Amino acid sequence: MSAVAYAPYELSDEGVLWRLHRNEAPLAVPDHVVRALRALTPDQIRWYPAEAQERLARTLAARLGTRPERLVLANGADELLCALARSLAVPGDEIVFADPSFGMYERAALLARAHAIAVPYERRWQLDVDAIAARCSTRTKLIVLGNPNNPTGESLALDDVIALARAFPEAAVAVDEVYLALSDRSLLRALEGVPNAVVIGSFSKSAGLAALRVGYAVAPKTLAATLRAQITPFPLSAPSIAGALAYLDDAAASAAYAVALRAQTIRSLDAVESAFAPYASNVWRGCAPFALFELRDAQEIARRLAARGIALRRFEHAALRTCLRVSAAGERETDALLCALPEIMREVRGA
User: Fold this and answer.
1) What is the pLDDT of residues 163-191, one digit of tens each?
2) Do both 163 and 205 map to the same domain?
3) Does a structural domain hold residue 193?
4) Domain final residue pick, 231, 249, 267
5) Are 20 and 329 in contact (CB under 8 A)?
6) For the chain, how many structural domains are there in total?
7) Of 227, 249, 271, which residue sits at a domain end?
């Protein structure tokens, strides 16, 4: 099986006025980052950013408490997932992940011409490490786990990650932590001594820099070198590096932004959860900046909201057809959903 092209609706935001579907930061980019981007000189734009990229690697490694030789920079976490798959798997090998989870796990496997082994949940949504282990074999080269998983929201237990890594020492266990990047809730430091563990993060969610596409992985030294060989020499643009460095260099401003971001995430999701509570049969909400709601008429609700310019994430996956994922958003976006939802529900259910 080969990877298929994205459907147009997956990449297009045509008609979207209120964004509650892409898990983007619910606050504007920090002011000190915007100033750094505006301060880029003509020479910084026309030259390859070799020196700046090296500085970012050193600065980020220090922030993460690791060594620069263990750090790999890339054009977003997606590129790192694909590079991992290419580095470790040859056609016929296996890449294992929970199902449902982030669609890039399967896509990375297929682009590497590996077998994508999707392990379904037996209980919604509780990761069964034994079930993951049971689907692994001597052909398994990569196990990918979301922490927290998207779109189900549950967090990983450190003991489960270590157990899988020890059970399959010839495979890498990649922990996708884009929602916990740069935070004290990351498993990164706890996994430092696990020789086949890789932790992936990005600046997209935690720093509000999704459009700059700054991803990173922390891996054992040898694997990190192999990963770099799968990535272009300058994977980050000068603006991307400038934005990430600005975020890291002003620790006080970034810490204040992180606090404000978490507060807005909680405010938004609290309000959204209350609004959906009368209609949803199940609600799943963990530490991720989104909540998952089960509604028997999820598809119709999403379509009617979309007609008003309000985008939520709906799914074609069989296990998620009756679910909607709602991202934390700013005050205006959240209010737009709260105002529209009661009328939409009257239209759909006649109540």
Assistant:
1) 999 999 999 999 999 999 999 999 999 99
2) yes
3) yes
4) 249
5) yes
6) 2
7) 249
Same domain, 132 and 53: yes
Residue 29 resides in a domain? no
Q: d(Cα 128, Cα 120) in Å, to the nearest integer? A: 9
| Side-by-side strand order, sheet with 172-176 | 71-75, 214-218, 197-202, 172-176, 140-146, 94-99, 115-120
User: Secondary structure of 288-317 in the HEC alphabet?
Assistant: CCEEEEECCCHHHHHHHHHHCCEECEECCC
How confident is the model at residue 12, as a pLDDT?
Answer: 84
Unique residue bearing structure tokens 């896509």: 107
Reported as a single tens digit per residue, the pLDDT across 121-157 is: 999 999 999 999 999 999 999 999 999 999 999 999 9
Q: Is residue 144 helix, strand or coil?
A: strand
- Helix axis angle for 76-88 and 221-229, nearest 10°, is 100
Mean pLDDT, the chain, as a whole number?
96
The DSSP bridge pattern shows strands 313-314 and 94-99 to be unpaired
Residues 6+ apart with CB under 8 A from 34: none
**Pairing of the two strands 140-146 and 115-120:** unpaired
Q: Which residues of 48-58 are buried (b: 16+ CB within 10 A; e: fewer)?
A: ebeebbeebbe
Eight-class DSSP state of 15: T
| Structural domain contains residue 236 | yes
Q: Which domain holds residue 343?
A: 8-23+253-349
Task: Write down the residue that tokens 């619910």 correspond to.
Answer: 26
Rounded to two decimals, the pTM is 0.95
Question: Does 130 share its domain with 257?
Answer: no
Q: 287 lies in a domain?
A: yes
Same-domain pairing of 242 and 257: no
